[in-house]
Amino acid sequence: RGVIYKFKSLTDEEAGDLYEELRKHDARLLEEAQVDSDDEEDTPDFDWQPAPSIHKQHGALGGRVTLNRKSGAGDILAMLVSIYGSKELFVNEYRVMLADKLLANLGYDTDKEVHNLELLKLRFGEISMRQCEIMIKDIDDSKRIISNIHSTIRNKNEKSKTKTNPEKRADDEEPVVDAAIVSHIFWPALQKATLNNHPRIQSKLDQFSMEYAKLKNPRRLAWFGQLGTVELELEVLEDDGQLHMREFTCSPLHATLILHFEDKETWTAAELSEETGVPEDAVRKRMGYWLSNRVVRVANASSIHSGDITYELASTDDLADSTDPLHHHADEDESGQAVSIGAQEAEAMEVYESYIMGMLSNLGRDGQLPLDRIHNYLKMFVTGSDQNYDKSPQQLRAFLQKLCREEKLECGADGMYKLVQK
Predict the structure, then answer these.
(1) What CA–CA distance (Å, rounded) separates 55 from 165?
(2) DSSP assignment, residue 357?
(3) Hey, is 374 helix, strand or coil?
(4) What is the rounded CA–CA span in Å between residue 376 and residue 351?
(5) CA terminus-to-terminus distance, the chain
(6) How many CB atoms lie within 10 A of CB 110?
(7) What pLDDT, on a 0 to 100 scale, did the predictor assign at position 268?
């Protein structure tokens, strides 16, 4: 937890020593930095003095103490990188954190991230931070593309309004879709859970996609269905017994679920699952959000334990009903994280697998290689590709055993791995 806290504080201006270390004017590349060492081979420093006690001269709570570090005290950032094990692992962890930050930035403001990136380049070098630079550029480009598409949609809607229905309100024609348009090969693997959007949402996405295709032909958009946020205005039953307009900011799945209640007032969890393409247990968890906000209620509370739950829009009669067992149910399964760590790991393993298959076909004696040779070849060949090889021999052995269970490889009694002959 301490390492994670330190890492997140790397680009936080209020975090203290680590951010100050990053923005030092005399910052050097990590290869040139000094790290404190407890190695017994180092020559002992007989002039070493312990840090002064905070109680000395000023009492336990009073006074102010300034600790002066020696000029060779080491580099905090270099020490943190050494904890991660390598510069590549540290940069990749930062890239994952940056992806979540950028995708959560609804204002497309990247000034702070650009400033931090320039500081990181001084420590890690231009090449190491190249993917992060492209990620930030994607967000800047997205802002310009969205502005162009919104302008085009407004002009089209204005012309259509004057021809068909001059009385139609202008605010009904405002573009409602924003998008972060990413170059996926430079980003960490994102959550790819599928979702069949409600037709009202899907029509807006299709309109945006069509204008993008015209603007950036031959490029096309592929939507990550369950990522992002949706802003809704709903009539909600309040304590005074009246319906009031309330604004909600929720996930696309939450929005799709509640919009189905415009089509009919009663839905079972199974029906919503079929409409959205989302597992039934996930539907029940997400519906807890609308239950707790008194937008819907459970119509058949007696059948809750059987799993056959029916939802309906809330009414004034529900104000006095405090017996609904799901009334205060909270949506507890909302991580809000856009980056899929599991998908990223699986993607890397697919790359390693292709290298392993290739080397067993071409490099091995009689098509066979031991664990240590495979490990060394991966370190040699995968370095420099989009997926760096950072596994230990023990992790590689577990992966090779998995390939053996999948009948892609076989391992002999001598520990030699080879392709399964089919």
Answers:
(1) 79
(2) H
(3) helix
(4) 16
(5) 48
(6) 20
(7) 92
Task: Tell me which DSSP letter residue 387 carries.
Answer: S
pLDDT in tens, 343-400: 566 667 778 888 888 888 877 567 888 898 888 888 877 755 556 677 888 888 888 9
Q: Which residues pair with 376 in a beta bridge?
A: none
The amino acid at 32: E
Residue where the block lists tokens 């802002």: 143
| Whole-angstrom distance, CA of residue 112 vs CA of residue 22 | 14
Element (H, E) at 292: helix 280-292
CB 227: neighbour CB atoms within 10 A?
18
Q: What are phi and psi of 237, to 5 degrees?
A: -75, 120
Burial 192-219 (b: 16+ CB within 10 A, else e): eeebebbeebeeebebbbebbeeeeeee
The pTM assigned to this predicted structure is: 0.66
pLDDT lower than 70: segments of the chain: 1-28, 30-76, 83-84, 161-173, 241, 301-307, 316-347, 364-365, 383-388, 422
3-state secondary structure of 296: strand
Which amino acid, residue 28? R
Element (H, E) at 76: helix 76-84
Contacts of 50 (CB under 8 A, 6+ apart): none
Work out the angle between the directed axes of helices 269-276 and 280-292 (0-180°, nearest 10).
Answer: 110
pLDDT of residue 244: 82
Q: What's the half-sphere exposure (Cβ side, CA atoms, 13 Å) at 359?
A: 20
